[in-house]
Fold this protein.
Amino acid sequence: MGDHDDLARVALDPAIQRMALRRAGSRELAEDALQEVCSNIAKRDPGGIDDLRAYFITALVRQISHLRARPAAILVEDIDAAGEQGAASAGGTPPDSVEHE
């Protein structure tokens, strides 16, 4: 059984952090996945988990896969032009405002 101190030890274990970095391919994605998994487990009460380390690793691998599958953000320099381009590519004219309906 584990508690929040055990959870912190597992999350800060250098071997787990190296594994996260290897699987994620970037430090930022690995850190995001580690933080998300820690938060989710802490909310569930880690004391009820028999093998906290194994559970953490499984959740971490799944979270990294989930984050890697998510499309990356597209950086835009001119947000007004991007909005106009998005409306044009969607086809048709944008819907009228609520005031006009």
